[in-house]
DNA sequence: AGAAAATATATGACTTGTCACGTATAATTT
DNA sequence: AAATTATACGTGACAAGTCATATATTTTCT
């Protein structure tokens, strides 16, 4: 084997710059930062986990619903809720009752204690959203969301389709 | 306790709509979808993990570098690489040698086998980026990246600052 | 009515990512 | 030169998320 090639600082810098404009690199990083920031905010508001916060918020806003409904609104996998909810029930934040009409379903309902936990975290999280709105105008947010809509569509297209695609450009 | 409130389909729909325009909900969902799509593409190109692919790509583009350099370019935590690299070395994709000038560092270098694995996955992943460029113009990508830059800045500001902020609006 | 298909939930195994902390080495200060 | 501080890496513990598979219940089809 040949002797070690040296580290080339210029090539690294160039590579870093390339990756800076790669959506598939920036998206994970932005998400990770968002998760960290979310957790830090929540530490100031009763130390809920992110999943717990989202769930309390949704239940507060929309009333009782099934696990699937929660997963749907949160755009996440039901298994995440399936695992988190028993703990939330044990903490007294929610009740879980089997559906009367459809016995497959679990109806999740906010308890008073859950509403209290929500009330404690809510103003902190409202501040977060308010702070975001000082960085981005409503119009910008709308464009941003529009991009995410289109990106979502793209990301959910079957890989086979995309691979077969004639790359015209 | 009062009897169970019924599920209110209209409220659920409204809540779903609200969350649809919440950046903090859409970002995780978009990232998760991106990760799934990335993995599916990689299954067509030698079954690398996402971390492995990123690492082979960076090493191919920029030559040998330290673990910290890799983490830096990928905008991720060094511990992720610290765990992934020994496995990549065992698979024969990279070598890890202690830095001569700075003995704290590990210099990661692509092997021939690593270059082969890269060459196998690269055209598939290039297709992915090409497909994305058919959905978004270069100008749109630039705006998108600009949003992500600004979002990153926001997400990295200390929570205390944001909480103390007078929310003027 | 009975069989087949679809749906709701639970659970094990896995990946990506963070943080905190420990250890070794290098750089800086006194 | 010695002591302090900073940096690079490794590792344990955790969170958020996916997927596949199993089970129970509904719905649909014959």
In a few lines, what is going on in this structure?
With 169 residues, chain A is mainly α. Helices cover 69% and strands 7% of the residues of chain A. Chain A contains 8 helices and 3 strands; from the N terminus they run αααβααββααα.
Secondary-structure blueprint of this entry?
The structure is a homodimer of 169-residue chains.
Chain A: H1 9-20, H2 23-43, H3 50-62, E1 65-66, H4 67-74, H5 78-90, E2 94-98, E3 106-110, H6 112-135, H7 138-156, H8 159-164
Antiparallel strand pairs in A: 1-3, 2-3
Helix pairs in contact in A: 3-6, 4-5
The structure holds a DNA duplex (30 and 30 nucleotides).
Description:
2 copies of one chain form a homodimer. The first copy, chain A, is mainly alpha-helical and 169 residues long. Chain A has a domain at 25-134: Winged helix-like DNA-binding domain superfamily/Winged helix DNA-binding domain (Arc Repressor Mutant, subunit A), CATH 1.10.10.10. In chain A, 69% of the residues lie in helices and 7% in strands. Chain A contains 8 helices and 3 strands, in the order H-H-H-E-H-H-E-E-H-H-H. Chain A has helices at 9-20, 23-43, 50-62, 67-74, 78-90, 112-135, 138-156, 159-164; strands at residues 65-66, 94-98, 106-110. A 3-stranded antiparallel beta sheet of chain A has the order 1-3-2. In chain A, 34% of the residues are buried. The mean pLDDT of chain A is 93. At the A-B interface, helix 1, helix 2, helix 3, strand 1 and helix 4 of A face helix 1, helix 2, helix 3, strand 1 and helix 4 of B. Chain A binds a DNA duplex (30 and 30 nucleotides) through residues 28, 31-32, 35-36, 39, 49-51, 66-68, 76-84, 99, 102-106. Chains A, B: InterPro entries: HTH_MarR-typ, MarR/SlyA-like, WH-like_DNA-bd_sf, WH_DNA-bd_sf. Chains A, B: It comes from Yoonia sediminilitoris. Chains A, B: Residues 20-153 form the HTH marR-type domain. Chains A, B: Pfam families: MarR.
């Amino acid at each position: 084997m040949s002797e070690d090639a040296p580290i080339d600082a210029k090539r690294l810098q160039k590579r870093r710059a390339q990756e800076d404009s790669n959506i598939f690199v920036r998206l994970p990083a932005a998400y990770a930062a968002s998760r960290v920031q979310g957790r830090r905010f929540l530490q100031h508001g009763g130390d809920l986990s992110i999943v717990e916060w989202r769930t309390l918020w949704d239940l507060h806003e929309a009333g009782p619903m099934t696990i699937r409904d929660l997963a749907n609104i949160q755009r996440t996998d039901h298994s995440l809720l399936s695992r988190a909810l028993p703990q939330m029930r044990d903490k007294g934040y929610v009740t879980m009752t089997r559906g009367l009409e459809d016995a497959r379903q679990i109806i999740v309902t906010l308890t008073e204690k859950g509403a209290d936990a929500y009330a404690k975290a809510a103003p902190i999280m409202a501040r977060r959203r308010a702070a975001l709105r000082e960085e981005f105008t409503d119009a910008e947010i709308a464009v941003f969301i529009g991009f995410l809509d289109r990106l979502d569509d793209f990301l959910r297209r079957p890989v086979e389709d995309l691979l077969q695609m004639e790359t015209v450009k």
